[in-house]
């Protein structure tokens, strides 16, 4: 388990819950945008994600969630794998801490045109087809979200004319102002 001291240099305290692709991307973007970031992963953080955090001097812990480090946040970005009714999430919301998804967080830092694809089935196929069409047409874009790089990681890495995102229902659970320029809603069936 890796635990590092959290430093407080401003009033923008961001806690990222979950250290996978979306969490690491959110932590990197948060640090770039001036937040004091702390990442907490209840499981084992992969060595690649730990290295990315260490390279940017982002403190983190793995193997547990420390209430005293999490509940001081002004904003929490939670992994899509953490349910809204998890005790830590309920406690944070009861304290008035805003809890959002990585998709919501990243969208706050870009004015680029967003194309989002969601639905129960076919998201990856349709997203891949649109990616191919944009590539053949020579239109500058990035592709990610639920496939490839996280949206936050893409925004962290630099500007693009378009952001093509595959977005799962779990990623959409934590949005409040995310509004893609083009939204594609595929079939909706109960399969979760």
TrEMBL record:
Q: Name one Pfam family in it.
A: MurD-like_N
Print the keywords alphabetically: ATP-binding, Ligase, Nucleotide-binding
- Residues crossing the lipid bilayer are none
Is Nucleotide-binding among the key words of this record? yes
> Which protein, by its recorded name, is this?
UDP-N-acetylmuramoylalanine--D-glutamate ligase
User: Which Gene Ontology cellular component terms are annotated?
Assistant: cytoplasm
Family matches, as InterPro entries: Mur-like_cat_sf, Mur_ligase_cen, MurD
Residues annotated as signal peptide: none
Q: Which GO terms describe its biological process?
A: cell division; regulation of cell shape
Q: Does the keyword Amino-acid biosynthesis apply?
A: no
Write down the superkingdom of origin: Bacteria
């Amino acid at each position: 388990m890796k635990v590092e001291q959290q430093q407080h240099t401003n009033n923008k305290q961001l806690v990222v819950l979950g250290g996978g692709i979306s969490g690491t991307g959110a932590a990197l973007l948060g640090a770039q945008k001036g937040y004091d970031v702390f990442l907490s992963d209840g499981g084992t953080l992969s060595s690649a994600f730990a290295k990315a955090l260490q390279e940017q001097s982002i403190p983190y812990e793995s193997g547990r969630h420390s209430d005293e480090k999490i509940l001081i946040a002004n904003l929490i970005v939670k992994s899509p794998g953490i349910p809204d009714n998890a005790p830590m999430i309920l406690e944070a919301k009861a304290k008035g801490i805003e809890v959002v998804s990585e998709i919501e967080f990243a969208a706050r830092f870009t004015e680029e045109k967003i194309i989002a694809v969601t639905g129960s089935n076919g998201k990856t196929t349709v997203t891949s087809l649109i990616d191919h069409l944009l590539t053949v047409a020579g239109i500058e874009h990035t592709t990610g979200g639920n496939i490839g790089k996280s949206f936050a990681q893409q925004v962290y890495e630099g500007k693009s004319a378009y952001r093509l995102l595959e977005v799962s229902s779990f990623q959409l659970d934590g949005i409040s102002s995310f509004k893609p320029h083009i939204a594609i809603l595929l079939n909706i069936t109960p399969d979760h």
